[in-house]
Design a protein that fits this description.
By secondary structure, the chain is α+β, with helices and mostly antiparallel strands. Bound molecules: flavin mononucleotide (FMN).
Length: about 525
């Protein structure tokens, strides 16, 4: 009996892993064919970027002038709040502290308790910088700890990107995790992702499993739970879940679009990568942090200023030290945001270097976890140089040459990949990580790439330059450039950094009315 249930777990795991492979391969962009999507934008069905819960009262958050100061408000303002409103002719749209593929913002956030709040579960309404109470519960709760639970509305991304959208939702979640960790650090708080929370637990905690509250509303997919606090981060999961189950729920989720297209491949990959939760606490984890300087935190002004470049100037260069500094920040270290993750680094950077003074143009690789160096050497089947580029970093020159056109071509022909100082692909240790942690870890690989992306955005901003995340790239041609022939490594996300060319036709207003001068 025990053996047969064990065997069925193994075979479920294997079929889930094979679905991960078929989804990942089936949503690759090829030169001759993009991943499946509608192929046009159905503007009539464009999903609203903001969800609200009808019937839930509003709890304003600081720094809104009508709210008392709170660390929850401060942390949310500087992670998931609005950073600006843009306007061009008749259109007006908001930007946020966290970036998002296509500015579609599939990530929703829930907060549990926190000092100054009644014990409860709250939905974060970024458009108003307010909380909407979802559940009031009675339970003992430490005053200086709160939870941030992140979920994704797949439909928001699928509306535009079709089947590849599940990947983008995971990238965005990774950006939101890093943004949350960094904002917590700016408020003097610790924050960690909790691997023991299963998807089922997260759904119960946030109430996204409550069919009666989501009639006609697009469903949300569990992401992760982060615990945020000043000292002890101990939270009794079972106790809290019991309190929430017995709590008083309010509010009905708003519908974001009138009509929908069903992308069943996304439902399948979501099911195959459902997280059963795992018994690893951060202190037991296998993280081995290399001896790099602790990441310097950006200040709040930099965090609010972060933007994606829509075009880069195609001529400015950066000095070697500035380049190495940016890469050093992308190395895992003992500080935020890396200390929010419970696994050791699995993402490595394959760089296209274009304009760095004192560094030859060409292909490079930054190995973010020493353990992977030999595996990368074996997997990259081309006759590469593997010359150490600097003493400061595990950065290797693979091949010299002008790779501007190559970088642009493999990045869905986007000029930003050629017009900066450098662009890069993020190579994940794919098969080994899935074998070690199971199919749910497919999501985590994207999350780590999103965390790396967020750090690069902020490093670029701090240096007076600008970055852009690139989710559109031709998967296999990228692998081919680096001689990768199997699934040992897979490129999951791209990024570029340079000097931005501003679009002067757009007007910019602050994220919130109360931030206009005079308030
Ligand atoms: C996962 C991800 C993928 C992205 N892919 C692209 C891309 O392929 N090309 C591009 O020009 N911008 C890309 N972006 C940038 C987004 O368009 C940008 O984040 C969004 O418009 C919001 O603007 P902001 O970053 O200035 O707040 C991507 C961003 C993310 C987070």
């Amino acid at each position: 009996m025990i053996e047969s249930s064990f065997q069925s777990t193994i075979s479920n795991q294997q079929s889930a892993l094979s679905l991960v492979h078929s989804y990942h391969d089936g949503t690759k962009h090829h030169f001759h064919q993009f991943a499946r999507s509608l192929g046009y934008l159905d503007w009539a069905s464009q999903p609203s970027p903001f969800r609200s819960f009808r019937g839930a009262p509003e709890v304003p958050l600081s720094p809104r002038p009508d709210a008392p100061p709170s660390s929850v408000g401060d942390a949310l303002r500087h992670s998931l709040g609005l950073s600006a409103w843009k306007q061009f002719r008749g259109s007006r749209w908001s930007l946020r502290v966290n970036p998002s593929s296509g500015n579609l913002h599939p990530t929703e956030a829930y907060v549990v308790s926190g000092s100054g709040l009644h014990h409860g579960v709250y939905h974060y309404a970024a458009d108003r910088h307010a909380l909407e109470p979802r559940c009031a519960f009675a339970a003992d709760w430490p005053d200086d700890v709160f939870l941030v639970a992140l979920t994704s509305i797949h439909w928001r991304e699928a509306w535009k990107y079709g089947e590849r959208a599940f990947r983008y939702c995971q990238h965005d979640l990774g950006h939101a995790i890093a943004a949350s960790r960094i904002a917590a650090a700016l408020a003097g708080l610790r924050a960690e992702m909790r691997p023991d929370w299963s998807h089922r637990d997260i759904a119960a905690l946030t109430g996204i499993d409550r069919d009666e509250d989501f009639v006609e509303a697009e469903r949300e997919e569990p992401g992760c739970v982060m615990v945020v606090g000043r000292s002890s981060l101990a939270v009794d999961r079972e106790h809290l879940l019991a309190a929430v189950r017995g709590g008083r729920w309010t509010g009905k989720a708003s519908q974001l679009s009138e009509a929908h297209v069903q992308w069943t491949f996304i439902d399948e990959i979501a099911r195959a990568t459902e997280d059963p939760g795992r018994a690893i606490s951060a202190s037991q984890s296998t993280i081995q942090l290399p001896d790099y300087p602790i990441t310097q935190l950006p200040d709040r002004a930099i965090v609010l200023k972060r933007r994606s470049a829509v075009a880069l100037d195609g001529r400015s260069s950066i000095g070697a030290d500035g380049f190495f500094d940016m890469l050093a920040r992308a190395m895992p270290a003992a500080g935020p945001p890396w200390d929010a993750l419970w696994w050791d680094a699995r993402i490595h950077l394959a760089l296209f270097v274009h304009r760095v003074d004192g560094v030859d143009p060409g292909l490079y690789v930054l190995v973010r976890n020493d353990r992977a160096t030999e595996a990368l050497k074996r997997a990259m089947t081309r006759d590469f140089l593997w010359e150490r580029a600097t003493d400061r970093l595990p950065l290797f020159l693979l091949a010299r040459g002008d790779c501007r056109r190559l970088a642009e071509r493999v990045s869905c022909d986007q000029e930003i990949a050629a017009d900066g100082f450098f662009s890069l692909g993020m190579l994940a240790e794919f098969d080994a990580s899935l074998a070690e942690f199971g199919p749910a870890f497919y999501r985590h690989l994207f999350w780590e790439s999103g965390v790396v992306g967020q750090v690069l955005y902020l490093a670029a901003e701090a240096a007076g330059t600008r970055g852009t995340g690139i989710g559109c790239f031709y998967d296999e041609p990228v692998h081919d450039v680096f001689g990768l022939t199997d699934h040992t490594f897979q490129s999951l996300y791209h990024f570029t950094i340079g000097i931005p060319v501003e679009d002067t036709r757009l007007t910019t207003e602050p994220g919130y009315e109360w931030e206009r001068s005079g308030h």
